[in-house]
Each structure stands twice: as C-alpha cells, then as structure tokens.
Amino acid sequence: MNIQEDCMSRAMPQHAYKMGIATHQEPLVYMRTDCAICRAEGYTANTRLQIKAGSRTLIATLNTVAKEILPPGSIGFSDSAWEFLALTQGQAVTVHHAPQVHSLSALRKKIYGHTLDTGEITSIIRDISRHLYSDIEIAGFISACAGGRLNSAETTALTRAMAQIGNQLHWPEHERVFDKHCIGGLPGNRTTPIVVSIASAAGLIIPKTSSRAITSPAGTADTMEVLTNVDLSLDRLRKVITRTGACLAAGGKVGLSPTDDLLIRIERALDLDSEGQLVASVLSKKMAAGSTHILIDMPVGPTAKLRSQKQAEVLAELFRVVAEALGLNVRCVMTDGTQTIGNGIGPAEEARDVLSVLRNESTAPADLEARALYLAGQLLSMATGADEAQALQQAREILHSGQAWIQFRAICEAQGGLREVPIASHHIELRSEYAGKLRSMDNRRLAHLAKLAGAPSSPEAGLRLRVKVGDSVEALQPLATLYAETPGELAYAREYFHENRDLFELSPATSPLPATEK
Amino acid sequence: MNIQEDCMSRAMPQHAYKMGIATHQEPLVYMRTDCAICRAEGYTANTRLQIKAGSRTLIATLNTVAKEILPPGSIGFSDSAWEFLALTQGQAVTVHHAPQVHSLSALRKKIYGHTLDTGEITSIIRDISRHLYSDIEIAGFISACAGGRLNSAETTALTRAMAQIGNQLHWPEHERVFDKHCIGGLPGNRTTPIVVSIASAAGLIIPKTSSRAITSPAGTADTMEVLTNVDLSLDRLRKVITRTGACLAAGGKVGLSPTDDLLIRIERALDLDSEGQLVASVLSKKMAAGSTHILIDMPVGPTAKLRSQKQAEVLAELFRVVAEALGLNVRCVMTDGTQTIGNGIGPAEEARDVLSVLRNESTAPADLEARALYLAGQLLSMATGADEAQALQQAREILHSGQAWIQFRAICEAQGGLREVPIASHHIELRSEYAGKLRSMDNRRLAHLAKLAGAPSSPEAGLRLRVKVGDSVEALQPLATLYAETPGELAYAREYFHENRDLFELSPATSPLPATEK
Fold first, then answer.
1. Min Cα separation A16/chain B (Å)
2. Hey, what CATH topology would domain B426-517 get?
3. CA A243, CA A247: separation in Å to the nearest integer?
4. Res B351 pLDDT > 70
5. Residue B328: its pLDDT value, please?
6. Residue range B9-97 in CATH 3.30.160.270
7. CA distance A461 to B128
8. What is the ipTM of this complex?
9. Catalytic residue from among A273, A297, A353, A367
10. B516 has a pLDDT exceeding 80
11. Do B79 and A66 touch (CB under 8 A)?
C-alpha cells in the first residue's frame, strides 16, 4: 500500500486542557490512550512531542491517560507546560513528533569522554535553552561535565554560549563594572549584601544578581528575598542600578544567562555543583550583566565546598584562564572556610545577621563583619589600585559611619521597600549531650540539617548557632536553635540531628549523661 | 515552642487512587496541594516520597494536583507505581519523606571522577534495584560510568552486584553451561536462534536469555517474541531448558539480574551503551543463569557499535579480565561488521530471515547462515576442544540435516508454540534516485530508519533490504521496503529517508533523474 503525503492526522488541532498537575519544571503533556492521534502516530508514554500554540513551541514528554480525566479531543498540560505556552483553556494546539535534536550526538560524544568544540557546546546550550532536552538528557550533560571533564576551552565556550542566550546589560558610560561572587559551601557566609552596599557607597557600579541556593540552605537571593523584592524585570533592574549604582536581585526573572537556571535545577536534583559548570554559571551571569571586574571569594576548609588549598588553586586557575579568554578581569581570594560565618543558617536567620552588621549593632557577628570588610577592601583595591590595607580602611569607614546602611536601604527601597524579617512557626533547641570544648562543626551536615528543616523553600526555616568553635559547652547547653514552618519538617530535622550529634565535635569528650536525661 | 514526638500527620493513612496515568516506568504519585499532609510535611512537586502499602514499599516522585481530579484523603498513583505496590482502589497506604539514600554520596563520588570500591558499587546497585533512585539519578550513574570510566575492578564489582540481586539458576548436574552474546550495532544480525538451535542439538546446555533492544530496532527477545512466547517464569524457563537443553527467552520476567532492566531503560533514553555497563550487563545475566562458558560475538565496522579493531580489542580485554575475576570462561571473536546481516531489519523481518535459514530455504540469506555457522562452530570447539574447521563442519551438518530446525521447533513448542510471522499494515518502497553500484550502507542510519518506522515496539515495523553492497542498481529500483503499523510512522520514517538518501552510497554517481521523476 502507498499512503498519501497528507493523510496524516498529526497536524489536526487539539484543545488545550489544564490538568492542574504541578511537575516542578519538567513539562509534561497528557493524551488519552484511546485518542486517534496517539494510535495513528504511535505515541506512547515517554514519547517526546512538539506542541505548537500560536507562535510558541514546546517539547514535552507524554504521559498517556486511560480514564476520563481528559475530555475527548483534548491534550492536557502540566502547570509548567501551560505557563510556557501561555495557553488558555480550549485553545487549539497542534501536536507532532519532536524533531530530531541534533546536539544529542554531541552530548553522547561528551559522555563518552571526548572533547567538544565551540560549535558543539553552543548547540547543546541552545537546545537546552529551547527546552528540547528531557531531564534525563540534562542529567547526562551535567554528569558528563563533572569531575574536571570540561577543559578550559570547553568551559570558555560554555560560558560564552550561556551568556549570549537571554538578556544582556550594557554600561556604555562605565569603563569598569564590578561584581563579586562566593563559591559557597560555607553556611551563613552572607557577605554579599554588605559588600555590595559598601562598594556602591564608594561609587562603584555593581549590578549584582544572585542565584537561589543550589545545594545550600540559602543563596543570597533567598536571603535578600526575606528583606525586599528580588524578582525584578530587566527594566526595573536597570533603573535600580542607575539610581543607586547597585542592586541585590535574583538572577531568575531578569533573564541573564537563563539556561543556567535549567542546568541548576538538575544539579540540585543530583546535589552536584561541578567545576566547569560552576565557572560557566558564575561568569556567564557576570558577562550578561555587563561586568568587567569580578572578585571571587573562595572559602577553603575541610567541610567547605573547596576542601583544600590545592583544589581552590585549580579552580582559581580555571577562572583566570576562562576570564582572560573572555576579556574579563578576575581576582580570586582564598578565605577561611573552616567554620560557618555569622550565627544564622537559612534565609531569615542569615538576613538577621546581615542587618545587625549593617546597623553596627553590638551583637553583630564579628566574623561576618570582618569577612565582608576584607572582600569590600579587595573590590575597592581592584577599583582604585590602592594597597589592600588602605582599601580595607576605606571599607571600614564606610560601614562604621553608617553610609553602607544608608546605601543598603536605598537599594532595598529602589527594589520595592525594606521588609521585616519573619519569625518561624516552630522551633526547638538542639542541646549538647556532654560538657566539653567545641572543637569543630561539620558545615555540610549543618547545611543538610537546615535543608531538612525546610530551608530555603521555607525562608523562616534554618538554624541559629549558639556556640562558636573554641567555646566551652555545658551538658544540655543549647548548641543551636532549629526553626521550621511545619512540625513534620522540624521533627524530621531533629531526627537527623539525633543521628548526627557528632557534627558538633566536643573535646575532651567527658562521659555522657545517663540515657534518661538525654 | 516544643512539639510532641508523635503529633505528626505523616503516618496518617491515605486512600490509594488509580490515576490512570501511564508514565513509562518512573513511578509517580499525586497529592492535592491543599491536603493537610502536603502542607504539614512541606511536600511539593518533585519531593521524593516513601509509600508503604502492606508489606510493600515504594519510593516515588510527587506531582501535586490543584484540582478535583483526586478525591480528598486520597493519594493518586501512576500505573507503574500502582502495579509495583499491587494496590486495590481505596486501600490504605502511608506516606513519608523518602529516607536518605546513602549510596547517593558514592554516586556523586563517581560523577566527580573517583574510583569506587566494591562496597560502594554494591550499595548503588542495591538501592537502584529497590527503586530508591530517580530517573535523573540513574542518568547520572550511567553517564558517570560511560567513556571507559569504570575500571576492570569496578566492572567486576558491578557485574557481581547485579548478578546477586534477583533470581539465579544453578545446574549442579552440568559442569559446563554455555551461552553466546553479540555486542550488537549490526542491524539484522539475528544469529542467536540459529546458533542456540545448533548448539543444543549437539547436546550443549545453553540457557539463553536475551534483552530487548537497547538502541537498536530489534533485540533477539523482540525477534523471538514474533515467533513464540518469550516471557517465561523462572520455573517454566527451567523446565524448557531441562526438556530441550536450551531456551530462547526474554530476560525481563525471569528476574535474572533485574537491575539491568532499570539501567537499560535510562540507557535507552540517553541512546547510550557504554563499555563497563555493557560488560556488566552481559556477564551478570550469564552468571545469574549459571553459565560458565560464554562466546562473545564482536562485529567490527565503521558504522557498527565497535568501529575499529582496536576498540574491539579494548572491550575484549575488559571482558576477559572481568570474566577471569568472576571465574567465567569467555571467548571473544571479532566478526565482519561492515554491513547488515540478512535482509530484514526489525522484529518480524528478522524473524523471517531466521526461519528461512533454519528451514534451509533456497532464498535464505547466505550471510546470516555463514555467520551463524561460524559462531556455532566456535561454541562447539569451546565445548569439545575440536579444531575450528572440524567444529564448523559439525555445525553445518546439524543445520543442513534439519536437526537444527527440529530443535528450534522443540524449543518454541516448549515455550508455548511456534507462531506465524505477522504482516505490517503499511509499506512503501524506498527507491534509488540514481543508477550505480552500491558501495556501502550506513548501519546506524538504517537502524534509525527502522526505529522511526516504529520498531521494535511495533514488531511488524522495519525494513527489508532489496540490495546488497556490490550490487548494481537501476534508477528508481527499490533499495528496501519500509514497513510500519501506522501511516504517521511510515511518513515520518520516509521523510528521514528522503533527508538521508546517502545512507545508501552509490558509485560512480551518475547524473540524477530530472526532479519531476524523483
């Protein structure tokens, strides 16, 4: 039998139907197994489909539905698919087999351990940005690039490809535009709002956008969102910077290097944050924001993200090589990452620490202030060429005179107003079993504890540390307060603490209390 | 505020509700965003949950539903989740946060490029087999192990871990138990049913189970399923082998190395089939089946899975090292992989070729017969120690005397009866534009063409080649017949052929026909 060229039902429009199913970001569509199109086209569960609605196109994974949860002649959409296509109920859409995604052969080449050229990397990033990759395929890309398997040329290509997709800011009136970034892994290390306030009070242009947390209990964007509006449009962002010299916004909605967000979602699911991806993620955002001079803070410590000086040097070298290839000026500084900075972990608790430093309160955590001043000094010395001691002194004067606090409020006002820090619904004290001296704290497990309590999706969730390394601790003395928005999360986090009491290491270990008093 | 230990709602039973949504294998559960448990526990889209129903436990990913598609107090299940838990409508189930999956830290270690020890690999495989990994996490594992990044010790550990989970066959009465496996990548290379028939007719024990296709248009199991029942229980399989000395079954339902099937599903989605995984996949099935002597057929050719002699030697060496560590006897033979074997591609078309060889029909593809005889001869020489020429002669006599055909029918009868090969609903001829001599065919693109037509999920879909390399071809002469079960798939595959006409390379290229006659 011969078939006619145009007998295919696949272009026959279907009616859009909102399923009311939230699937996080992966777009899903639903069709009835008994529908003519599924049968004629051989669509089955997990088939990748291309949906066209007006001028918009989406590639989504099919789930087939057997029962009457979908009216005949309709195609159902998950919430994210619905939003991406900006659909209205009943709107006509057409369904096709997803086109071949040519860059997938480059992906497989990378998975097999080969080096990719600029064109191949660009094609992968372009196709990811167009939502042509499934979650499984993005996971393959992330995993294949981890463990130092992206070389500096590949990382450069990745950075440029990511920076060139989405929005871009340009600052023709400014020769030098500044930014700072912390590699993370150190809970509570929330210096950015302080550093940005000091630097912009000193006259630097610093268009700072931050990610939300990847694997940590709070990113700077999560912390700033407790204090003000961080989801700015590109226009609004530009106005805030023009008015104040700076901003403290979330990267998400501004659309600077938006592909990064698609990658980060899968990195988060895998709890991974690899070198090449990290450099590309950081520098692509800065490039797209129009920055030219970037300070990279690299905390080094046994339980920080960078565990050794050597590991930090390898990363710093990759930053330098890639930055040079892209015409950016980068300074990497290695800082102490042996313990948490400040006393709060989690968005709201970290916001409290930031405010107390900016307000020069006597209870402000001294370590957070010292760290912020050091970084602000580094930025000022990059800008003015002053020696580091002079620049540090200038930063200190700006903070202690209250200029930084005035500047911080100006930025928050420009972004939509300064908010009160909220208080968590539930909390308990985490107490020591023993008396002794606090020898160390495990940053990773502290971060995990705060995440189990609900941070960062519940901004009030997290920890407030009540002790510092070196402190003497009595038996039953509170080591930290644990905050959560739900009793379930609080209990879940507490259970983890009880199984991981050694995350606070006391020395010398004296005999534990009788079991009944624990 | 302090909360009581037992105030949590998370153990409160919910009623199971079958959503009627097919999601392929990834288990999904659905809960209403407005339900008390979601709110109290902080469950959101993509949260991993542990569901208990009677004595069964499942880890599944949550999708939240906003509308009335789920009755209050209910938790919805995708089809695969429903089946895994063997639920009945309204059955009480309990929902918890998924427990920490400890082996995920070993997974990240592997992704970061480190070597895993036996315990770490065993823990990953055990957790995958318990359905504790999401698709994204399995994709990370597959990708991290590809590209030669599993060393031989890791591959040995992986093989043993996979073989030890699930069912196992033991053959205490037989000192030597045989098997054969083809590395694949060569469409139509369906020698197994012929080789197994010859070898078992000669008295060898050969408990052959086959995978379905991973990245090809048909696996041996897909082809055999056209001819007989291949989904046997372990008991039935044992009986078939005891009666006939062999079987030609699918690996799936027998439960030999079942974790392999969970990995293969994601390898298929990524269109990947890497070295270490491949060796572990093959040898774990053979070990679990109780085999001791295994012949590995390695077709080498520019468009086969193994593209060079060197690549084949590396793989053969890995097979030998791992087999030795596991106490198995492996012989690897490299065969010609420059063109397809037989004339059919796709389950039904390959089955036709197999039958014609076994029946000694004059139209039987000579290349398929020669290949099958060569491999059967190798197996017989492994068994008897006879030299290869003698063993080949023995294999030829068994085939040409009709003993192999009798044995094949006996195996099919024991498995449930021999079936007629079905005929596809739709077909078209793929014709040459030019006259010329056929210089080469691209195996990979031929395989892709058959897959676009619907193979292997539609067993009738695929190709029948009408020409061989070296043949002279007239303009408009059919090069192949394309079969499909739906007009959509037929048109889709034809479109690909028109964009990829050079997959049949003709030489010398004479001038094309005028456009109107194409």
1. 16
2. Aldehyde Oxidoreductase; domain 3 (3.90.1170)
3. 10
4. yes
5. 97
6. no
7. 31
8. 0.76
9. A273
10. no
11. yes
